[in-house]
Design brief:
Protein name: DUF465 domain-containing protein
Strand content: under 5%
Number of strands: 0
Shape: elongated
Coiled coil: 18-66
Number of domains: 1
Order of helices and strands: HH
Keywords: Coiled coil
Length: 73
Amino acid sequence: MNDDDPSDDSDVAIERRLAILREEHQDLSDSIEALEERPQPDMLQIARLKRRKLALKDEIVRLEDQLMPDIIA
């Protein structure tokens, strides 16, 4: 790879964004688990967190596809 290749910079930016999103996804998983363990869990809050977690997962998959697009052989 060439150091002057602008795609290298965009790949690094995508990798950084992915790391942030994965960490946030894990934090949401931990939060959901903690809420579900309560005697009377707030199901509305859990549902909102699960929707956010799913949206993050969708964005993670989209960014991963940008790094390694499917190649049909």
